[in-house]
Amino acid sequence: MTNKFIALTYEACRICGKKMNESICIHRRFFDISEYDSQITGLSQTPCNECKEKYKMNEYNVLVVVDKEKTTDLNNPYLTGEVIMIKKECELGKTMKFKNGLAYTFNAGEVYNFCNKVGKEYENVEYKPKQ
Ligand SMILES: [Zn+2]
Questions:
Q1: Mean pLDDT rounded to a whole number for the chain
Q2: Is the dihedral of CA 78, 79, 85, 88 positive or negative?
């Protein structure tokens, strides 16, 4: 590409990390930004359509599991690939805070065990291991 002041950039899905929300960046002073071409520049506010469908996000909120040791910046979390789906309408789902149907957790086992203990909430929670 000869126009080095133009780059095609992407955001990453907050659940699967896949590229989405393609956008064209143009440096207003025409500096070389070719190193950003085809790169992910941040996380999307909402998950990709595939994840929305896969995790039935019209019905469930999603807790995305993050590796605490490998994450140095919460704006760039290291995803383990595990996900916990929590039905929006259950007590647990109402008490937890989600943004755009999403929240992060460092410990999937702890959350899942808690849900198990609560007992009646069990049917409202689904654990999805890394695929
Ligand atoms: Zn996704």
A1: 87
A2: positive
